[in-house]
Amino acid sequence: MDRFFHSVTLDSEKCVGCTNCIKRCPTEAIRVRDGKAHIISERCIDCGECIRVCPHHAKKALYDHLDVISRFRYRIALPAPTLYGQFNNLDDIDIVLTGLKELGFDEVFEVSRAAELVSDATRRLMAEGNLPRPVISSACPAVVRLIRVRFPDLCGHVLPLNAPMETAARLAKQEASRREGIPQEEIGAFFITPCPAKVTDIRVPIGTDGSAVDGAIAISEIFPKLSSKMDKLTRVEPLSKSGVIGVGWASSGGESAALLDEKYLAADGIDNVIRVLEELEDERIRELDFIELNACSGGCVGGVLCVENAYVAKARLQKLRKYLPVAQNHLEGQIPGYMEWQEDLEYAPVLKLSNDLGEAMRMMSDIDRMSKEFPGLDCGACGAPSCRALAEDVARGVAKKSNCIFVLREQIQSMADTLSAIGGSMPPAGKNGEDAE
After folding, report:
1. In the chain, helix, strand, coil percent, each to 5?
2. Rounded distance, CA 20 to CA 413, Å?
3. By C-alpha distance, which of 9, 107, 3, 6 is closest to 58?
């Protein structure tokens, strides 16, 4: 398995080197060199922010297409609750779920069902009092990866539970295998995803050896086909088995509200997430029990693979929730093992300068010195997101000081002054240095 598989990719033919992406990347994973953007694989967390801001559509997400389900004997759709907010005037979730079956799925297992179970498990773990406060949600894989590469001291605060997508896949396969008498290897579970981070989480999961999800189909990919099927339905099956709590996970604050604890914070949008994590790392946030963080503005409804405006989708979901019970799913007995992480979250030192402490200290000194030589404008014209990032690139040997246009201008001016001085000291043109007649 590729340790650095990424669902966010670059189409170099469309890239014009405009530098929009380098300024928005939360881990400084993008550089522009020779007029084209380049993604530093080990730094990328697949948040999709570069896809969102690229005006030339040079960044794109990899995901599976609908025909991937044909590889399995029995096919289960795992719709994210975000999907329901994409449809106008929807008053019955069963219409969407029945439409998915019309697309070729044998069964539909709502991820919102698993969300209610994860909420129940979270309440139990927090009641035991063994988790360090504040507990940070593990639902957004982009946030978890951000913590792993930028905030190592916070790794122990991340909730050690699988996200609802993973829990839904494992539970759905277990139930289908018992009910249908089919081996789990012949059952495919496919997540209908609002974001590329979930695609990466399936291929390279965190906290578990492997994912039970067999593919991720973008909401934007399935939406037109699903809409067509929904318009032609002659009957609607009663398939929905989730309530307000589960569907509420689609937007920011939904997971926190399900904990029935007022001492929580919910932040969305990558800039706000980073600000909260920085304050948490500096111990300026103390009084909270739970922190819910979503890399996308508005929560999962703001994912780049959605088709509807995040706030329109959120409003639709709020209206839809009026017709739902509070919750329909609760844990019986102990928290099942398939919901818990098998491995602790560990720091991934991809931003480390060198494995040798002495060399790292020398490079840090060089970076501090060079940073003072640059203008401090963080303009991005050099192809790096900031002056300090350029200094780091120079220290690593992958860039030159002259990449900075201000340094380059000074060098050119110095050369021009030198040439001018040399020219001024030379004797006037003529034979033997005499004035030409």
Report:
1. 45, 10, 40
2. 29
3. 9
- Distance between CA atoms of 111 and 94, rounded to whole angstroms? 14
Reported as a single tens digit per residue, the pLDDT across 113-171 is: 999 999 999 999 999 999 999 999 999 999 999 999 999 999 999 999 999 999 999 99
Report the C-alpha gap between 200 and 142 in whole angstroms.
Answer: 9
Nearest to residue 46, comparing CAs of 32, 60, 57?
A: 60
| 259 close to 327: Cβ distance less than 8 angstroms | no
Q: Which fold is adopted by the domain 357-425?
A: 3-methyladenine DNA Glycosylase II; Chain A, domain 3 (1.10.15)
Locate all alpha helices (DSSP H) within 204-269, ordered by sequence. Answer: 219-231, 244-247, 254-257
User: Which pTM value belongs to this model?
Assistant: 0.90
- Sketch the domain layout of the chain as residue ranges: 8-61, 66-339, 357-425
- Which amino acid is present at 183? P
Interval 221-267: pLDDT, tens: 999 999 999 999 999 999 999 999 999 999 999 999 999 878 999 99
Residue 77, phi then psi, degrees to nearest 5: -90, 135
Distance of CA 81 to the CA centre of its chain: 18
- Enumerate the H helices of 297-356 as residue ranges: 310-320
Q: Are strands 36-39 and 30-33 parallel, antiparallel or unpaired?
A: antiparallel
CATH fold group of domain 8-61: Alpha-Beta Plaits (3.30.70)
Q: Please list the alpha-helical segments (H only) found in 243-401.
A: 244-247, 254-257, 270-281, 310-320, 357-373, 387-396
The rounded distance, in Å, linking the Cα atoms of 429 and 436 is: 7
